[in-house]
Amino acid sequence: MKRVFSGIQPTGHVTLGNYLGAMRRWAEVDQHRADALFCIVDLHALTVDHDPARVRRLSRQAATLLLAAGLDPELCTLYVQSHVDEHTRLSYLLECVASDGEMRRMIQYKEKSARQRERGGSVRLSLLTYPVLMAADILAYGTDEVPVGDDQVQHVELARDLAVRFNQRYGHTFVVPEATLPGVAARVMNLQDPTSKMGKSDSGQGVVYLLDEPDAVRKKIMRAVTDSGQEVGYDPVERPGVANLLEILAACTGGNPESLADVHDSYGSLKKDTAEAVVEVLRPVQARHRELCADPAYVEGVLRDGAEKARALARPTVDTAYRAIGL
Ligand code: ADP
Question: HEC states along 25-46?
Answer without folding.
Answer: HHHHHHHHHCEEEEEECCHHHH
